[in-house]
Amino acid sequence: MGKFKTLDDLGDVTGKVALLRVDLNLPMADGRATDLTRALAVKPTILELAEKGAKVVLLAHFGRPKGERHSTLSLSLVQGEIERVLSKEVMFIPEVQGPVAKQAIGILRAGDIGLMENTRFWPGEEGNNPEFAKGIAANGDFYVNDAFSAAHRAHATTEGLAHLLPAYAGRAMQKELEALDAALGNPEMPVAAVVGGAKVSTKLVVLENLVGKVQHLIIGGGMANTFLAAKGVDVGKSLCEHDLTDKAIAIMEAADASGCTVHLPYDVVVAKEFAANPPSMRVCNVHEVAADEMILDVGPLAVEALGDVLKTCRTLVWNGPMGAFETAPFDAATVALARMAAALTAEGSLKSVAGGGDTVAALNHAGVAEDFSYVSTAGGAFLEWMEGKTLPGVAALER
Question: At the N or C end, where does the chain have fewer CB atoms within 10 A?
């Protein structure tokens, strides 16, 4: 990972305008935010810049307005939530460039905070239009990006502005990049990766990238069935992408060639129907799955063995659950393995980094999200990072 500037590199910014890209895409119901995680994540950067005397102007998107104004997607709807999170007044600015924006920013005093309208109301945002970016940059003195979750998009406010103004990573972005670097960029070996989830098709590139970077690849969830089928195991009625068994074989061969051990479950939890606590549920060896049964979780012996693997590792990257964790008792393997990883992290023997939407939900369900070294709430950006792709929003900060 290249070098990037942080807030520590700022000189005197009193009265200077900080254009701060944040993620305020809060889930809403009945005009209130149902989850403030994203607002809380950027609070330290906003307050630090305000305390340093900058005029802090927030840039964010909200929903998918596709380049047109929609009253239901105005960021004015979250203004009150942001004020509550910051315990400070926030001025709403209905434009992002032009005379109205200039005049509003002129009214702000040092340490004040402004919130600009939804950047995606203008087609220039997603098109990364240079003129649009210049129009926004004209009212700013420097640019700070604190929205890792949007870093995989090359938009005007996530990438374009970084080329026009001195650019810095905010505190949340900095934390994320440092955690990711410690997990796959420059990790302590040996490294284990847990990759779960329903389908191999959505994680193919992730798996192809990881086999060359980690020493242990632990595969769970529905995708493990495709790998088992590729090895000639009859997986019954399990969720399985039979058309991808060739890809699975290629991934296992690539792992062999690069000295990466692929771990597949050898005992599994099966049932004849997918429901909570079904009477037909049983634990069996993978070779004993009946034609009318489906694999819904990794078995207890395999989980114990995977725990032993983690004990030998220094770094863990986790994306996706081990089983159908939303339905008890098929959450058992995910919960058990997550708790083992959390315990090893607490002991100081393992650095654990996890990310992706269902992963965060699974770790919260296991009660260990707080105990991992770092949990990324960025879905798409985290996945693209695991795929080994360059994230435009990050690359623009590294120049």
Answer: C
Looking at residue 379, its pLDDT comes to 83
Q: Which residues of the chain have pLDDT under 50?
A: none
CA-closest candidate to residue 353, choices 377, 329, 333, 332: 377
Phi, psi for residue 338 in degrees, rounded to 5: -65, -40
pLDDT given at position 155: 97
Q: 236 near 270, Cβ under 8 Å?
A: yes
Cα Rg for the chain, rounded, in angstroms?
23
Of the candidates 360, 341, 362, the residue with the CA atom closest to the CA atom of residue 352: 341
Question: Percentage of residues in the chain with pLDDT exceeding 90?
Answer: 94
Q: Report yes or no: 177 and 166 within 8 Å, Cβ to Cβ.
A: no
Give this prediction's pTM.
0.90
- pLDDT of the residue at 399: 75
Which active-site residues does the annotation give? Answer: 38, 199, 357, 380
Nearest residue to 90 (alpha-carbon basis) of 62, 121, 58, 61 = 58
DSSP 3-state of 116: strand
Distance of CA 256 to the CA centre of its chain: 29
* The pLDDT value given to residue 34: 92
Beta-strand pair 28-29/17-21 = unpaired
148 and 381 Cβ atoms separated by less than 8 Å: yes
Cβ proximity of 67 and 125 under 8 Å? yes
Coil, strand or helix at 80: helix
Domains and CATH numbers, the chain: 7-171 (3.40.50.1260), 187-386 (3.40.50.1260)
pLDDT at 1: 62
Residue with tokens 């990364």: 128
